[in-house]
């Protein structure tokens, strides 16, 4: 197939994945992803298409068009995509991880989508991920930080009350005298730039790739994102 034609087909298929994901059409998403793989679409392109669809779902949830069940179903679809052999994210013979990230969804929050997408993107960037799951308390994060010594703590929060619990995480790390040993990045619909000052975290990210980019800056250069 001519390269330009193949690229056009890839773009069309990827856009179809976005639309199917946005509509939470499980069978169609998996069918299109498998087709995209056969077309030669890159792993990152497919994940990016899934993320764009999930971003729309997040906006629909924020607007009240979708409910918690829709978010959970979208998360299930994403996990099914990641189970496809051609999209396996971890290479057993890969080089040494560039850094260790402690990842979770904050207390009272049961949403897994943003965390799962960030996890996949971070794994592709060769981070070691310690996934604590959902509904994780500040005390649990403190204990795991002490035990596992991550370079970065990444916290997802969709619910508005999550900001209060993220602030508690920062306060517990300060009290324990280890706050300066770890960076904290947050993401999700409830987080914004003003949350950095309120919670005391180091950064927030509008999307997972922005978040992973910041994490790479921290472990590679020890600097701040522009």
């Amino acid at each position: 197939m001519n390269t330009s034609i193949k690229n056009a087909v890839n773009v069309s298929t990827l856009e179809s994945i976005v639309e199917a994901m946005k509509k939470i059409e499980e069978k169609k998403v998996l069918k299109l992803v498998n087709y995209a793989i056969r077309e030669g679409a890159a792993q990152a392109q497919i994940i990016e298409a899934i993320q764009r669809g999930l971003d729309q779902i997040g906006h629909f949830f924020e607007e009240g068009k979708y409910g918690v069940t829709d978010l959970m179903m979208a998360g299930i679809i994403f996990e099914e995509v990641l189970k496809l052999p051609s999209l396996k994210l971890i290479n057993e013979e890969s080089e040494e991880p560039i850094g260790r990230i402690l990842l979770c969804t904050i207390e009272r929050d049961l949403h897994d989508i943003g965390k799962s997408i960030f996890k996949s993107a971070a794994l592709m960037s060769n981070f070691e991920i310690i996934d604590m799951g959902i509904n994780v308390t500040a005390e649990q994060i403190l204990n795991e930080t002490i035990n596992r010594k991550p370079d970065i703590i990444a916290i997802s929060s969709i619910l508005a009350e999550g900001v209060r619990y993220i602030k508690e995480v920062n306060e517990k790390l300060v009290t324990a005298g280890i706050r300066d040993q770890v960076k904290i990045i947050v993401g999700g619909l409830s987080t914004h730039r003003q949350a950095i000052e309120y919670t005391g975290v180091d950064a927030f990210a509008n999307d997972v790739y922005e978040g992973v980019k910041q994490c790479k800056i921290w472990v590679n250069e020890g600097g701040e994102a522009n």
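The two ends are 41 Å apart (CA to CA). DSSP finds nine helices and five strands in the chain.
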